Amino acid sequence: MKITETVHQVEGVTGAPAIIVGLDYLSLVDTGTPGAEAQIFALVESLGRKRQDIKHILMTHSDGDHAGALAEVAAATGARVYAGQHEADVIGGKRPLRSGKMIATPAQVDVIVKDDDVLPLHGGIRVVETFGHTPGHIAFYLLSEKLLFTGDCLTNTQGLTGSLPQFTADPAQATATVHKLAALNPESLAFGHGPAIIGGADTHLRALAKATPRAPA
Length: 217
Ligand SMILES: [Zn+2]
Prior knowledge:
Blueprint: E1 7-9, E2 18-21, E3 26-29, H1 37-46, E4 54-58, H2 64-67, H3 70-77, E5 80-83, H4 85-91, E6 111-112, E7 118-119, E8 125-129, E9 138-142, E10 147-151, E11 154-155, E12 161-162, H5 171-184, E13 188-191, E14 197-198, H6 201-210
Parallel strand pairs: 3-4, 4-5, 5-6, 10-13
Antiparallel strand pairs: 1-2, 2-3, 7-8, 8-9, 9-10, 11-12, 13-14
Helix pairs in contact: 5-6
Bound molecules: zinc ion.
Zinc ion binds next to α2.
C-alpha cells in the first residue's frame, strides 16, 4: 500500500515492512515475520522493480516480526543491512532476545548505526535511538518526507501509544523515547503495527507526550 509519494508498506505482513523507492534503488525498513520475503518481493515487482534493486535493509530492532525474514531477504538481494549495535548482536545470535531466547535464524548486520547518524539514502535518513521496546531499538527519519519509521517504539493499533507495556524491555526508556520523538516534530509516522499517520503527526505526538509522565530520575 502506497502511504506517501515514495513509501509503500507491505500489506498483510505483521511488523509492516516498508519500501522506500529511489530512482535506481530501493530500501527496505524491517522484514516482517519468517516467510514475508514472498510478499515483500511481490510488492517490489508490482512497482516494476526487481528484488535485487533492494540495496539497503534498515532494521529497527531484532524481534521476530521485524527480523523474521531478514536472512532470506538479505541472501536473495545482497543488500547491506543496518542496525544499532545491541540489535545487531541479537540479530547475529550473540545476545538473547528480550524473551531470553536466541534468535531462530541469525543474520549478519553490515553497518552499525547510532543516534543522529544521517544515512546518505533517499536524500537523507536520520537514525533516532528509541530505546525501551528493546535495548537497542532505533527509528529511521526520512528527511525529505518528514516521515518517521517508528518500528515498535510507537504503535497505532488502538490509537497512538508508546511501546506496548507487555513488549517493553525498559519502561523508563520507552517513556523517554516518547518525549524525544515529540521534540523531533515528524509530520508523518509509519508504524510496525497500526495504520500510518500521514500529516499532522506532530500534534498527536505532543498530546501523547503530555499524557505520558516521565519516569522519576
Ligand atoms: Zn513488532
